[in-house]
């Protein structure tokens, strides 16, 4: 009797293991890169002007994620990133107008980097300890992807971003209420914090005795020591049919099949780490860097570059759960995008670095 029970248990465990290995989903990769720059990711300005007219199908919501013991332990861990030479950017840009090219030699010093994107729980601790008020809270609104809003919130909105009508400015949306007043973070403390502006991210990192990574540090860390690869894990999006990042599967922006398990943000650490031990370097949420934006780069060898001395936009890296090859082919280490520092959105977060072990 006991033996049969054990046998059954083994069978169940093996099935679960197989399921995790393959993520229980097929591989999907859109062929077309047309319009790959059209995600509107970089168009989030607070003075949005045109009327919202899209009434698209909304994705179903995923079950609430549990805060695992493993995540708890790893939550504020930093990984030592050994300094070295690497090739930044690419000579084969997926989105040329983003200034991904040319490929250029760099050296970065050693540093420590957060293993995970900063979570809601970590950000909540910061707010509790400091009383800090985020920019979205001061402005009274933030940009939320239409597909994750409740009907009642959507019905109150009259404006949208002209070039990207799926972005809606939602009153009361902020880190603590990611989809507006009728939402909260209770069931997603282990998800990445969103609706944080660049200054909010800087404030958090300084409080933690850390700082934002430079774009060069971020990209070096993303590549995890691999040379000339698209993704933190290699060149194939779904090796062996497995998902390595929280991205968008389906037709953007109308249907997200959630094949990778998530139609919105995922608990940090839901996908495999790269060779430096870092999770979600691409996908889940975009990550702020300290650099000002430019698309002009020198090919001279550089050491610890920090970007232009001034600018209008800050660089963000890694793409998000909203990225699909057809619209936002930016879930590559060389990919980049920009936002004004006061921007905040439902797919934009950050992680910190430091020179010394924390
Ligand atoms: C958070 O939202 C859930 C579901 O929408 C609700 O049941 C719960 O009371 C809310 N919690 C707080 C602290 O507002
Ligand atoms: Ca997803
Ligand atoms: Ca990320």
Question: Could you walk me through the main structural features you see in this protein, from its secondary elements to its overall organization?
Answer:
Residues 76-353 form the Sulfatase-modifying factor enzyme-like domain. Keywords: Signal. This is Sulfatase modifying factor 1. Its main location: endoplasmic reticulum. Pfam families: FGE-sulfatase (PF03781). By secondary structure, the protein is an alpha+beta fold. It has a single domain, classed as paralog of FGE (formylglycine-generating enzyme) (Alpha-Beta Complex). 18% of the residues lie in helices and 16% in strands. The chain has seven helices and 16 strands. It has helices at residues 2-22, 69-74, 120-130, 135-139, 151-154, 198-207, 215-223, and strands at 50-51, 78-81, 84-88, 104-108, 111-114, 141-145, 159-160, 167-171, 250-251, 255-256, 286-292, 302-303, 314-317, 337-339, 348-349, 353-354. Strands 14-13-11-15 form a four-stranded mixed beta sheet. Strand 9 (250-251) and strand 10 (255-256) form a beta hairpin. The radius of gyration is 20 Å and the shape is globular. The N and C termini lie far apart (52 Å). Bound molecules: 2-acetamido-2-deoxy-beta-D-glucopyranose and calcium ion (2 copies).
Condensed summary:
18% of the residues lie in helices and 16% in strands. The chain is an alpha+beta fold and 358 residues long.
């Amino acid at each position: 009797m006991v033996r049969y029970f054990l046998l059954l248990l083994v069978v169940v465990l093996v099935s679960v293991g197989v399921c995790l290995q393959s993520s229980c989903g097929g591989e999907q990769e859109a062929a077309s890169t047309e319009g790959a720059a059209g995600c509107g990711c970089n168009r989030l300005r607070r003075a949005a002007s045109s009327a919202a007219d899209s009434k698209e199908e909304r994705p179903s919501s995923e079950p609430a994620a549990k805060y695992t013991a493993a995540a708890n332990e790893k939550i504020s861990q930093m990984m030592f990133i050994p300094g070295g030479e690497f090739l930044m950017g690419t000579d084969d840009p997926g989105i040329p107008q983003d200034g991904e090219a040319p490929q250029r030699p760099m050296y970065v010093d050693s540093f420590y980097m957060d293993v995970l994107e900063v979570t809601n729980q970590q950000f909540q601790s910061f707010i509790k300890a400091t009383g800090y008020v985020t920019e979205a809270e001061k402005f009274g609104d933030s940009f939320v992807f239409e597909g994750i809003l409740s009907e009642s919130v959507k019905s109150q909105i009259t404006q949208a971003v002209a070039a990207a009508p799926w972005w809606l400015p939602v009153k009361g949306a902020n880190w603590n209420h990611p989809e507006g007043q009728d939402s909260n973070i209770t069931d997603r403390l282990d998800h990445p914090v969103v609706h944080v502006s660049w200054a909010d991210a800087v404030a958090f990192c300084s409080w933690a005795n850390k700082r934002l990574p430079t774009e060069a540090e971020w990209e070096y860390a993303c590549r995890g020591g691999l040379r000339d690869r698209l993704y933190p894990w290699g060149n194939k999006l779904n090796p062996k049919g497995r998902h390595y990042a929280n991205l968008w599967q389906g037709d953007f922006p109308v249907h997200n099949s959630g094949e990778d398990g998530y139609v919105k943000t995922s608990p940090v650490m839901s996908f495999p780490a790269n060779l430096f031990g870092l999770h979600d370097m691409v996908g889940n949420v975009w990550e702020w860097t300290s650099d000002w934006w430019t698309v002009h780069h020198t090919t001279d060898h550089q050491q610890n570059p920090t970007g232009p001395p001034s600018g209008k936009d800050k660089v963000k890296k890694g793409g998000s759960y909203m990225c699909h090859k057809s619209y936002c082919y930016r879930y590559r280490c060389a990919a980049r995008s920009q936002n004004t520092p006061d921007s905040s959105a439902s797919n934009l977060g950050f992680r910190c670095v430091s020179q010394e072990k924390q």
